Each structure stands twice: as structure tokens, then as C-alpha cells.
């Protein structure tokens, strides 16, 4: 079988044509061109809750070409807290970790500031609960993103119209969607009066009770919400071979 020799000129010409083709060709990225993101998330006890979160994360991953890997960690025996503490000490682990209670404050020195993410959410959805701000910030920097996933906010749901009709009281003046309140009504909102209102509503055929376990009800301002026992998502700091701090990929999930 015969063969042809390629001269140096032919090789350089071929290489030049290949380079030109590569430059003019459309950019094609792989399925996970942006890399991988590892999440450590609370294993929710409500059936189907994990599936919903997984779907949202996968949709975000497909849109941004990121492979999202989620580990659902149980809170039984405080395994979620122990895992976060172990990863903080080891300086390695999940890129994003779910923290509850005051754990953001506990691990703030090894967490990555995420001011631009939270401030972007605030700009889009409105102010965040002061309790969430207290728990997830340090020295005016955000170290966690408040999330409704795992939030322990259990507000009572009250019928404004029924209180007006049978108790003669406007709840919106006691709990307004602003910083202004009817101070006289606020001071009159005590346990004795609450029992009186409860009796009036019961006689009208609308008994009331204390809240037990229920999801956070929608507010007029759909901002991320949190509570003293709520959860925040944070990104950890990692150390490269040159020992310089670098930012890890971040995932921000809209509260609605």
C-alpha cells in the first residue's frame, strides 16, 4: 500500500486551517460546562418536599449548565448540625450547606460572604424578616440566604372579616404591612382580650385555636422569611493549593 509524505509546509497549512475552523465554529458546551455544585440540605419529613426541591435545583442546573448534587441530611440526632460542624472544621465538604438556628453565627468565619446574592433578592422581593437578618449577618455582611425550606415560622391564620364582624376589631391596624401601628389597639391586644375575642367568635360559630405545625403563610411582600429556628443556606470558603481564598459557585433560589 502506498502512502504520501506530508511536508512541513503541508503540516503548518493543515494546522492553520484547523485553527481557523475552530475560531469560526459555534461554541458548543457540554452538559455540565460550568462544573458541579454540591448541596447539603435538610431531609424534610413532609412527603414529596425533597422531590420538589430536587426539581427546582435540577431546573436551575440545566439552565446554567451546572451538575447539582444534593445530599439530604436528617435532623434526627442533630446529624445536619454535626455534619456542618465537621465540614467547617475540616475545611471541605459541600459547597452550599443548610444551617438552622444560630449555626450561621457559629460558622461565620469559614463561610463566604454573599451580600450581592441576598441584596439582589431584597431588591427584587422586598425586605427580609429582621430575625433572619439578625441570624444570617455579621458585621453588616450576609453569610446565609434565608429560605422557606425548613422554616419554622408558624403564624396563626386569622380571618380579618370575622374579627371585624363579631369582635369589632380591625386586625390590620394591629398587624399592618408597615411600620405604623395603632398603639392603643396594640396595647389592648393582651391575653385577657384574646380570650374575650375567642369567646365571641365561638358563639358566632367560628371557634379558634393556637397554631401548631403549618407552613409559613404568604405575606403581602413575598420576601424570603425566616425565624429563630429557621434555616439559611450558606456557601463555605475553600482553600486552593496557593492557599488563597476563592469563591465557590453559588446557588440562589427565589423564595417563590
Layout of SSEs?
Elements: H1 8-24, E1 36-42, H2 49-64, E2 67-73, H3 79-90, E3 96-100, H4 103-106, H5 115-125, H6 130-136, E4 137-138, E5 141-142, E6 145-146, H7 160-167, H8 171-174, H9 183-188, H10 191-203, E7 231-235, E8 238-239, E9 245-246
Which labels suit this protein?
five-stranded mixed sheet; two-stranded antiparallel ribbon; disordered N terminus; D-Maltodextrin-Binding Protein, domain 2; 256 residues; alpha/beta; 2 domains; 10 helices; 13% strand; disordered C terminus; single chain
Q: Which architecture name of the largest domain does CATH use?
A: 3-Layer(aba) Sandwich
Beta fraction of the residues? 5-15%
Q: Report the CATH superfamily of the largest domain.
A: Periplasmic binding protein-like II
Overall pLDDT: 74
At the first level of CATH, the class of the largest domain is Alpha Beta
Largest sheet: 5 strands, mixed
Amino acid at each position: 500500500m502506498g502512502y504520501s509524505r506530508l511536508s512541513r509546509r503541508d503540516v503548518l497549512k493543515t494546522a492553520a486551517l484547523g485553527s481557523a475552523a475552530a475560531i469560526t465554529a459555534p461554541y458548543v458546551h457540554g452538559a455540565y460546562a460550568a462544573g458541579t455544585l454540591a448541596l447539603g440540605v435538610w431531609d424534610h419529613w413532609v412527603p414529596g418536599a425533597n422531590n420538589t426541591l430536587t426539581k427546582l435545583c435540577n431546573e436551575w442546573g440545566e439552565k446554567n449548565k451546572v451538575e447539582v448534587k444534593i445530599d439530604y441530611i436528617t435532623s434526627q440526632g442533630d446529624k445536619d448540625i454535626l455534619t456542618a460542624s465537621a465540614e467547617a472544621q475540616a475545611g471541605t465538604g459541600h459547597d452550599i450547606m443548610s444551617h438552622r438556628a444560630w449555626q450561621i453565627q457559629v460558622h461565620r468565619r469559614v463561610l463566604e460572604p454573599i451580600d450581592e446574592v441576598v441584596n439582589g433578592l431584597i431588591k427584587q422581593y422586598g425586605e427580609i424578616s429582621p430575625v433572619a437578618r439578625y441570624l444570617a449577618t455579621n458585621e453588616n455582611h450576609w453569610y446565609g440566604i434565608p429560605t422557606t425550606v425548613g422554616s419554622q415560622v408558624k403564624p396563626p391564620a386569622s380571618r380579618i372579616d370575622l374579627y371585624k364582624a363579631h369582635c369589632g376589631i380591625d386586625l390590620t391596624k394591629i398587624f399592618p404591612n408597615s411600620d405604623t401601628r395603632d398603639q392603643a389597639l396594640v396595647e389592648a391586644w393582651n391575653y385577657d382580650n384574646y380570650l374575650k375575642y375567642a369567646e365571641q367568635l365561638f358563639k358566632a360559630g367560628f371557634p379558634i385555636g393556637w397554631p401548631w405545625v403549618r407552613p409559613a403563610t404568604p405575606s403581602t411582600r413575598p420576601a424570603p422569611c425566616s425565624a429563630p429556628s429557621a434555616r439559611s443556606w450558606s456557601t463555605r470558603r475553600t482553600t486552593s493549593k496557593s492557599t488563597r481564598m476563592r469563591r465557590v459557585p453559588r446557588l440562589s433560589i427565589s423564595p417563590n
